[in-house]
Amino acid sequence: MAAPSGFLALPAEIRNRIYEYVLLQHHVSMAPFAINPHTPGLLRVNKQARAEAIGIYYLRNNFKIWLLREQVGRLNHRLPKVVRRVMYQSRWELVVVEV
């Protein structure tokens, strides 16, 4: 197998710094049930880059997904598997639930 060249030839520490610089947004807003939710291009470069960077993007950013109350009910069985904290906000109240 040929040695990696270009970006993948960089030391892992440098690649991780690049992933952090590009992928850490702290707050990512997403439309509810988007047909094609935006996936950063860096996660689509190749399998190795995706494997190295996906944890930085999904574990270290906060995602804001705006849903109607009825939509949240359909997700209840999945929430503990994919989120650490759920915040519900209406015009009158804000509720935070640690999962």
From TrEMBL:
Residue span(s) of domain 2EXR: 7-58
Organism from which the protein derives: Meristemomyces frigidus
Protein's name in the database: 2EXR domain-containing protein
Pfam families according to UniProt: 2EXR (PF20150)
Organismal lineage: Eukaryota, Fungi, Dikarya, Ascomycota, Pezizomycotina
Coiled-coil features, chain-numbered ranges: none
PANTHER family associated with the record: F-BOX DOMAIN-CONTAINING PROTEIN
